[in-house]
Write the structure tokens for this entry.
Amino acid sequence: MNHTDYQQLLAAYALEAIDPSDGRALGEHLVGCPECRAELSDLREAAGLLAHGVPPQTPSPSVRDRILSAVRAESSRSEPIERQSNVVPLAQRRKPAWSTQLLRIAAVLILVAAAFVLVSMILIAQHKIAELTAEVEAQKSELNREHEARLQDQKALALLASRDARMIQLTGTPTAKDSSAMFVFDPKSHSAVLLTQGLPVTPADKAYEVWFIPKGKAPMRGKVFTVDPAGHAMITDQMPAEAMTDAVIAITMEPKAGSDAPTGAIYLASPAS
């Protein structure tokens, strides 16, 4: 039995109208429960006040005669009188009312719904945070690219304005007759810049690659680049020391990631010395 069951037995216990087994169980509970002991004391006090508060009544002669006649008639019977017990047995504990069960079910459903809403809100927030994080990273990457492009532009402009810079003209081959380029480099720092115009736009899986071809040696790789719709490009590069004199500078179309050796047609080339 739980605490509520014991409280329901207190009234019968106070009137001494409780089943003996329930009485023993309640007595053991009262030892350790000051709340139930206090309530039992109040119930007993109330029962005593009710008993003393009813004024004594004297039965009328006719009522007295009927009671005595009934007693004598009962006494003359051979069968023993079955005494009715004033103990109220506790057949079974009261089951919770349907309304209580429904309230409990409703409370559980409300908690489940609240948990579902909370989890959904957390998932939505995490998804939103992931989207914002990806957007911030994309913006940072774009800013880095723009910053790098500005630095390259400043470097190219500084090289073009340098008095020590040397220029090499690249002309179009039969593959790209209308294209041309200017290659400018600094003999001291080996910094270089390539300016192109009129080059055909490459397919999505292709790109242009710069080659430095020293006399009597294998081609050396340079930068890989693409052009805008007008065929213009401005890229910075570093010229190998071996290509500073007597080298041909050529541009071929290669796979997008570039090649270790020229594989495509030559589009632009400097004059051979």
In short: The beta strands are 166-172, 180-185, 191-197, 206-214, 220-225, 233-238, 247-255, 266-269. The first strand starts at residue 166 and ends at 172. Residues 96-161 form one domain. The chain is about 45% helix and 20% strand.
